[in-house]
Design goal:
Number of strands: 14
Helix content: 25-40%
Structural class: alpha+beta
Number of domains: 2
CATH topology of the largest domain: Phenol Hydroxylase P2 Protein
Order of helices and strands: EEEHEHEEEHHEHEEEHEEE
Radius of gyration: 19 Å
Strand order of the largest sheet: 4-7-6-5
Largest sheet: 4 strands, mixed
CATH class of the largest domain: Alpha Beta
């Protein structure tokens, strides 16, 4: 089953929630199965309520109309169900079965494409390397290629750069970066968001950027270092000499 998508997150939901990678594998015929891998999770401890709910089964529907029809049907039978939640390239509703196991019904906001498979493999491969916040430095081949392209094009000196996959869900992050004084350049499947300033702070407040997209903003790698990364701000600075 090939890997077709991956989401990484640090400090998800609560400060003590473990960092994780969320892997999506293609099962064929439009079906996918997803797994969470949690870093440093104590194996001897019973799962918390959040951990219990994160291990759930998701059912696919094709359209928003189907999703809303399922929500109406569940509510008509007295089942507590969430409002639709958009996260990255899907929108979902959540509810519990009679055994307390969380279930999800989800519809695609766009079709997965080759760029997702290529980019997410790169992202997932570097997820563990980049999770050592606040001193994380990543980007791997993407960052190296970005610097090589910059030198070839004779561009200005870049001290801080962020790499995001060039897909619709990251457009608000790109817009925020540009408003914050960063420039955007295409690097293969990625957009390099860069600045010659010694540091930059991206502020989520008022942008409408969803939690899942915000926490995945450093997934593609970066040049420089992460000073701090919270639910509302990403503070990046140039790499200091060791």
């Amino acid at each position: 089953m090939p890997l077709v998508h991956a989401i990484t997150a640090t400090g998800w939901v609560t400060e003590d929630y473990p960092d994780f990678v969320h892997f999506f594998f293609d099962m064929g015929r439009g079906n996918r199965i997803a797994f969470f891998y949690y870093f440093d999770l104590p194996t001897e401890a019973p799962p918390s309520d959040l951990m219990h709910r994160s291990r759930h089964l998701a059912f696919h529907v094709d359209t928003e109309q189907e999703l809303l029809a399922w929500r109406a049907r569940l509510k008509a039978h007295g089942v507590r169900v969430t409002t639709p939640l958009a996260h990255e390239l899907i929108e979902s509703i959540y509810f519990d079965d009679p055994n307390g196991i969380q279930l999800e019904i989800t519809r695609p906001l766009r079709e997965m494409s080759g760029i997702d498979a290529r980019g997410r493999r790169t992202d997932a491969a570097g997820a563990h390397r980049r999770r050592g916040l606040p001193a994380a430095v990543g980007g791997g081949d993407v960052a190296a290629q970005g610097r090589a392209d910059q030198e070839e094009l004779g561009g200005g000196f870049v001290t801080v750069a962020l790499y995001v996959l060039d897909v619709p869900e990251f457009e608000p992050v790109v817009e925020l970066a540009e408003v914050s004084g960063m420039t955007s350049n295409r690097r293969g499947d990625y957009l390099e968001l860069s600045t010659s300033a010694p540091e930059v702070v991206l502020r989520r407040d008022g942008t409408g950027i969803g939690t899942a997209v915000w926490h995945a903003a450093v997934t593609g790698g970066l040049d420089g270092r992460i000073v701090s990364f919270t639910a509302e701000t990403i503070h990046l600075a140039e790499e200091t000499a060791s």
